[in-house]
Amino acid sequence: MPRTVAVGDRLCTKKQHPCGANDWLVTRTGCDIKLKCTHCGRVILLGREEFEKCFRRYISRAERSESIENR
After folding, report:
1. Is 11 helix (H, G, I), strand (E, B) or coil?
2. Residue 70 and residue 48: Cα distance in Å, rounded?
3. CA–CA separation, 43 vs 59, rounded Å?
4. 23 and 37 in contact (C-beta within 8 Å)?
5. Residue 30 — left, alpha, or beta (φ > 0 → left; ψ -120 to 50 → alpha)?
6. DSSP string covering 16-64, please?
7. Largest CA-CA distance found in the chain, in angstroms, rounded
8. What are the tens digits of pLDDT across the range 11-22?
9. 64: CB partners within 8 A, 6+ apart
10. What is the pTM of this model?
11. CA separation for the pair 64, 41 (Å, rounded)
12. How far is it, in rounded angstroms, from Cα 10 to Cα 22?
């Protein structure tokens, strides 16, 4: 089952980034996930399947609105 990620979520990956951190900020979602290293600022783009393999756990979740209005 695919994980639900949103822009603003902070997450931990299985492998460390070469800078030594494994703390990432989600900056874009869709069929690709764009992540920014919170330590060095490097931005990477992962396909959804590759993201599912490297995801370990959430550090913090972005605040989500409780109600969604129809447009």
Report:
1. strand
2. 27
3. 18
4. yes
5. left
6. --TTS--EEEEEE-SSEEEEEETTT--EEEEEHHHHHHHEEEEEE----
7. 44
8. 999 988 899 899
9. 6
10. 0.80
11. 24
12. 10
